[in-house]
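Notes from hallway chat w/ T.B., transcribed later so I don't forget. T.B. wanted the structure written out for a chain they're using in a teaching module, and asked if we could keep both sequence and structure tokens in one place. Agreed to drop them here.
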Amino acid sequence: MKFIFADSLDHVDPGYDFIRDRYSEGRTPYWDDAYPHEIMGYAPYKGMLVSRGIVGGAAVGGKYTEAQAMRFRRVGAREFLRLDRPQFADLPIFGDCGAFTYHKEDTPPYTPEDTAEFYDDAHFTHGCSVDHIIFDFDESLKGSEGGTQEARRRFEITLENASAFRAATQHMSNRFTPLGVIQGWSPGSMAEGARRLVAMGYDYLALGGTVPLKAAQIKACLAAIREVVPDKTRLHILGFAKADEIDTFGSYNITSFDTTSPLIRAFKDAKANYYLPTKSGKLDYYTAIRVPQALENPKLMRLAKRGALNQEQLVSMEKSALSALRSYDRGEAELEETLDTVIAYATPAVTGSTIDELPGAKTVKDLRERYKRTLAERPWKRCACAICSSLSIEVVIFRASNRNKRRGIHNLGVYDALVDQLPMNKGRNDNSQVSSDQSPTERNTHSSFVCSASV
């Protein structure tokens, strides 16, 4: 089972000045920034996925600039992602259509034929058929019963596109491995979709529409699918939002899955945004310490506007919090005094109220306890990855993109190592499942992670 990272131009400025909070002078983001596999020195995943909806184009406006989208198609995904260096050259590159980007449309904006050309032009190793996402889900339904008229319409569109996509790839001499995408409104309907895809000739299927589903619901779909497809049929889970529970999915013979969860949680999760492995093979989570920029944080600005704190106070408190954390990291400050200084600034930044307005509030107490654990246990000192080694305490400071994304990249490395150690992966050759006779060898030889498992 391989962890594939779904990229969305997630790179960082390698020369960022963390003391002055400044980008490198003359920086041009794409050209000067580094992807996770560059900043870490090895790939903290077993492959990357790029959605056509993220790249964008005439049909759908994506995240790439027009110049970036043109270059992506001209030089190919591997060179664009800077995976063309020898140590990364064997990593697979998956493509999908990014169905959520057009979920409000009556039909997908892409055809099976132009999607096949998109994958072929950009030299993807794997490409998913054109699906139309179905949000309805009822796990109590049996077989193919139920389903709204719209769900059934999208179901048929997805399968018709898969059939046409399969045909469109035949003349490409198997330069990439096609995946047939499954959509459905119940476990039974997804099983029926999988059965029909196998009948079309697909031996690698991708389960879509899983983002809003609970882990138990995804498992019900996988179980139903496994009952009707051959054991040798490979399965990929698209946009797997339950990545933290991957260790419970071993019995479903999953070949690969893609997620952005470890990176995104670094800046979207309120409590669990720094990962560390434990001796038991699980993940331990720490709360990063919020020290936002005083003159940019909306909650702080609202406090300043109503006169609860003035801007000069906020700038002074921000400076004191950063100084206290750095002094603590150097062993020059005590834990409690550091916490006092940090909480005085973090409270208004997190709650929108000053400590005086929230005396003894549960929110403040909870925040202090979580920050105290992070500081007392110093998890950044127990990790030898390139990011923690170079940033030290800066990696657990929740503050603007370059810190937060670096913490997310650290999380990718921890997560990839954890997936490697799952029982279903032990003893398997790295390219035993994802690779095929028609695609390149897909073995990442830089998968070792150097984060200590001591707790």
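Follow-up for T.B.: Residues 149-169 form the longest helix (21 residues). Might be a good example for the class.
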